[in-house]
Amino acid sequence: MCDQQKPAAYLRVGQIARAHGVHGEVKVLPLTADADRFYQLKQAYIERNGGYTPVEVGDARVQPEAVYLRLSCAQTREEADALKSLYLCVDRAHALKLPPGQYFVADMLGCRVEDTAGAHYGVLTDVLETGANDVYVIQGKQTLLVPAIKKLLYQVDIDGKRIVLEAGVLKEVGLFED
Hints:
- 9% of the residues lie in helices and 46% in strands.
- The chain has three helices and 13 strands.
- Strands 11-12-7-8-9-10-13 form a seven-stranded mixed β-sheet.
- The protein has helices at residues 77-81, 105-108, 167-173; strands at 10-20, 25-30, 43-48, 51-62, 67-71, 87-91, 112-115, 120-129, 134-139, 143-147, 153-157, 162-165, 175-176.
- The chain is mainly beta.
- It folds into two domains: 10-94, Elongation Factor Tu (Ef-tu), domain 3 (Beta Barrel), CATH 2.40.30.60; 105-176, PRC-barrel domain (SH3 type barrels), CATH 2.30.30.
- The termini are far apart.
């Protein structure tokens, strides 16, 4: 088993779905927009019970539905089976650099959400992946669901933990749950 390290700033890049084969390979469902990143991934962390275990990564095969990897802490099918449903993470130093206007979901969670007219809606608590556009879940007096579209996002201030939505667009696309 690998040694535990103190939690730091880690980002989830995949979730281990199951063992693949008899030699410890795992099937990983990517949680990143660029699955090809796994070809360059050499070190990662397994998230388990609030801790992060470092693992070496090798032999990446990227398929349309999943990524198949060899992890240093899984040499047998049984060891790979024990990793099922756990998250594969990277530290901030090895995270992909995002272009302007794109943000890590982990950084957006917890941001206060308001609109350009000054109305406050609550806090971003979840991002749902729907296929066409992600959907932001904002918890306040009511739950607000909004599509993650460029014309709606007026300002995203990760350092200030604040998201401002374009009020006119919000009226068109926002959905309040009862």
